[in-house]
Amino acid sequence: MKKAVKEYVLITLGIFLVAVGIYYFLVPSDLAAGGVSGLAIVINKFFPAIPVGLLMLGMNIVLFIIAFIVIGSNFGAKTIYSSLGLSAMIWCLERIYPISQPIVDDLLLQLLFGILISGIGMGIVFNQNASTGGTDIIAKIINKFFHIDIGKSLLLSDFLITLAAGLTFGPKIGMYALLGVVINGLVIDNVIQGLNVCKQVTIISEKSEEIKKYIIEELGRGVTIYDGRGAYTGEKKEVLMTIISRKEFIRLREYIKELDKRAFISVSNVHEVLGEGFTEIE
């Protein structure tokens, strides 16, 4: 229960950031950088009386109905919550603190800040095994009927939306929107990697028994032991290997520093760890 609450809190934070990035930076500059939000920006140009948030909400509901009929019930509660929640949150921002013109006159700044804020939010949402829906659903429908890979279908749907932006708002806006799609993907990937990064630590020490005990009892992590032999001395050594979080690594490093200043420690970043004690394999 506690884990589920934490996941939904993080998803809510993520969709709030996405909503802020879209509504306060992308919408005022007509930057339709893919997704249902981009399509809503294009439609809003022709029907300005209908708010972007309401358009997104309506399109997401329609897409979910189509997806359930065409694809099947392969959409989890978290995806439904985040996609409909994002639409509702943008609609609320339009009501609570509306904005009618860009914050700054620089189109590139509007694009970069909008993509950066919304990309961080999307990364948080995706990291909780959820999705903001929209384009993902369109991509799956394209895949179902035209047998195009999901990745290519996703790129195709985003490209078609940015193409519509170019035809609606002019080639300059269209090119900026396409640039936004590319940057958005890079931001999301880096956020997910940053959130999941752990440290793989290899330790060779005369005090391996004490270090092993500290890792298991104090850090609550597992240790793998290898039998090693020094090439120069021929002396047999125990090699300890563990995967821990960044905070745990700082604690372990300080402990080893006090225990054995001659210890050999090798550290590398691991961008994703699945299994007991980390992210569950789903």
UniProtKB/TrEMBL annotation:
Listed transmembrane segments:
7-26, 46-72, 109-126
The UniProt entry lists the main location of this chain as membrane
Q: Which residues form the DUF2179 domain?
A: 221-275
Protein localization: Cell membrane
Q: Which CDD domains match?
A: YitT_C
Q: Which GO terms describe its cellular component?
A: plasma membrane
According to the UniProt entry, the coiled-coil residues are none
Task: Output the superkingdom of the source species.
Answer: Bacteria
The answer to whether the entry has keyword Transferase is no
Q: Which Gene3D superfamilies match?
A: 3.30.70.120
- Its recorded name reads DUF2179 domain-containing protein
